[in-house]
Amino acid sequence: MLGWFKAKFGKKKEAELPADEAVAEATSADAAGAEALAEEPAAEPAAEPAAQEVVVAEPAEAEPGETPVVSPVQAEEKALPKPAPGKDKAGKTLFARLQEGLGKTRKTLLYRLDTLFLGKKVIDQELYDDLEEILITADLGVGTVHALLDEVRREVSRRELSDPAALKKILRDRILGYLLEVDRPAEMVMPESGPFVIMVVGVNGVGKTTSIGKIAAKFVRAGRSVLLVAGDTFRAAAIDQLKIWAGRSGVEIIAQKQGADPSSVVYDAMEYGLARDIDVIIIDTAGRLHTQVNLMEELKKIRRVIGKKLAGAPHEVMLVLDATTGQNAVSQAKLFNEAVAITGLTLTKLDGTAKGGIVIHISRELGIPVRFIGVGEQIDDLRDFDPREFVDALFLNGGGNAAG
Ligand SMILES: Nc1nc2c(ncn2[C@@H]2O[C@H](COP(=O)(O)OP(=O)(O)O)[C@@H](O)[C@H]2O)c(=O)[nH]1
Ligand SMILES: [Mg+2]
Question: ω before 191 within 30° of 0 (cis)?
């Protein structure tokens, strides 16, 4: 249910610090952090005293001198629906829902592949040409398609195959191979104790805030405490949007007012999360014009501030990409990767494109694992990315659980 994250969250925390010790630690880390901030270039706006900047909607038992938090927890919202394993609220299998979410891609790709393979009796050049066109149209990317077809061709001749249906199976297996190659388990060791910090980046409108809301809900369902951080201070609406998502799963959120220095928001949030031993801290960031040096510098600074408050953090730098932007997503990924070293991807809006092949292309091209895929705007419309399930959803006809 938590995809790659379950590796850690399945385990029980080993060393849980007594609350007062945790606070003491946070305070000493604090001094170091303040120093760290003071080292930042003078040109960057200095962090003002946080207490004056924080927007407090419903202050949570704020003690004097403490960073106030917006805490939109409401009793009835706290109880998130818990789908039965393998089923959603409506009782549909999750596999069927994935197929539904991938509707357009599935219809186009599956239909076109089936038409091609059923219509052919032999494997010939024409079949390869048609296949190339179909795969490129599905946004697998020219480079990936050529590499893929080279491998398929070699396999076909090595095994002296002549049946197009066998070729289809090889194609599916090779695609799965690409996805499994990068679906490596965490390289980073997830913290045994203390918060798991996820920094979320990506250009405007790709679905960062929405995905954060959905990810928070997943962690809450798994019984984890979550703190959201409104690091996109560029627009007031962005802060409000994150508050709404915090309310939906009843988690706390640290937010300041529009225009506040994002690093200072993040600094406060880290302090708050460490002092309370929050399990997961998820940081939203701005995404205006990814070509601007400014944004990248801001993200680097946020990353530094996180790392100075908690060694080894952020444990995940998640890039959110909009699948409907096709090949553009690849160039975005390269830019963000250079600036903040991406460790995982979320691909959104797969429900809105007939070109779901971008997932395959991006995996192969970037070698960064896809953690989640977004297949709608609702809180449950975020799926753990499972290469087998994904390939089956694209290649298999009909519903039912066809995995395996
Ligand atoms: N159909 C669909 N829409 C999505 C998905 N993820 C996000 N959106 C929509 O995309 C728009 C931008 O999302 P937002 O989270 O504000 O993007 P941000 O600017 O990166 O934070 C919103 O209207 C979301 O509802 C998805 O997986 N599918
Ligand atoms: Mg946003």
Answer: no
